[in-house]
Amino acid sequence: MEILRITGGRPLRGTLAVQGSKNAVLPILAATAAIPGRFTLSNCPSIRDVAVTRTILEGLGLSVAGRDEVLSIDSTGPVGSGPDPVPAGQLRSSVLLLGALLARLGEAAIPLPGGCVLGARPLDLHLRSLEALGVQVRCENGRLLCRGRPSGGAVLLRYPSVGATENLILAALGAAGPVLILGAAREPEICDLAAFLTACGAEIRGAGTSCVRVLPGPLHGAAHRILPDRIEAATWLCAAAATGGDLSLSALLPDQLRPVLNVLSRAGCEITEAKDRLRLRADALRAPGPIVTGPCPAFPTDAQAPVMAALLRAAGITVIEETVFSDRFRHVPGLRAFGADVEITGRIARIRGVDRLHGAAAAATDLRGAAALVIAALAAEGESRITDARHLDRGYARFAERLRALGADAAEVG
Ligand code: UD1
Predict the structure, then answer these.
(1) Which residues have CB under 6 Å of ligand 1?
(2) Which CATH class is domain 3-18+228-413?
């Protein structure tokens, strides 16, 4: 999808089932390269990042069958140690093949990964902790060359990086002894990776806490259902909040959305919850008080742009501090095109609620920033055009179609 044309001003109303989690399925797909076995993954989102990962895995020698939400993967044959740099360069999560291939082969040659540009995204935490486990690491011609089976032992992450925690868990599957990860990330997607690996026979303790222990042992194929996508859910809730809508979401875990639900409810949304569903009703919004992004259990950085867009018309001033990424306000110039009043000072954004937004043309710069522009367009009066809308395809399945199902006037152009 290149351009998304939206005529705003219609409240989003209806019911939607949340898709499977992008950030859970990507490490689990990488994990299938670590384990010789046959896997069935259900609730896989039909998004470009999954399609690209599938191409990478097939290039390594795995067979991947199935479409829509169930993928069958056969990893029993020989597996290569060097992913194709063309697809791997499109995704940040391709770096997780480092841990997976080290566990399986004792070597890996990983092209430097891509993904959204959100400021400097170094890999020092991944690489230094693998080195601490005895893996040799060097960078040559745009590739990370790693060799050696990890020893057992303890590693301390100085920041709870999601990717570094996942890479260490994967590498630890082939380690010579138990690996203790201290300072681990606590995101729900880490728990889903651990649940998948446990189904494969691994013994993993403490996932979801900052101290994770992985015991190496024989592994086999398994079936697993991917966790619901808390960031997709947050995006739809923000779109409903911004438009004064009435939205029911099913197939989600409300507890995993707690920081986002707290902000939306402080902004005046009425939210009712059950075990795996919730309903949000919105009218005029007010500034919810300061929002500070951070590692789980803090407010998730991936929801920062959609929530900012939801609050552009909220009465008062909202202050958002982005502490996770150094350049994650790239959507702000686009939001200003709709008439938003957002001032940036370093890592702090001050949003002064305006009475109305007007239709505009704006170019998307990254996945969640693109979602923020769509939310602003839905809340604006008149027609808008979001260009470079292909960023949405990375993480949202059938986005325009699902918007229309909720009553939005949205059409893909080109
Ligand atoms: C994952 C998510 C991404 C989310 C992010 C934070 C996937 C596929 N992506 O990305 O959507 O926004 O978690 O919740 O799951 N850092 C270092 N050195 C490193 C690694 C990270 O300094 O070696 C820094 C990063 O630059 C960033 C911060 O740590 O400032 C968080 O990054 P990290 O948690 O690693 O994010 P990702 O795993 O890349």
Answers:
(1) 23, 26, 92-93, 120-126, 159, 161-164, 185, 189, 301-302, 324-325
(2) alpha beta
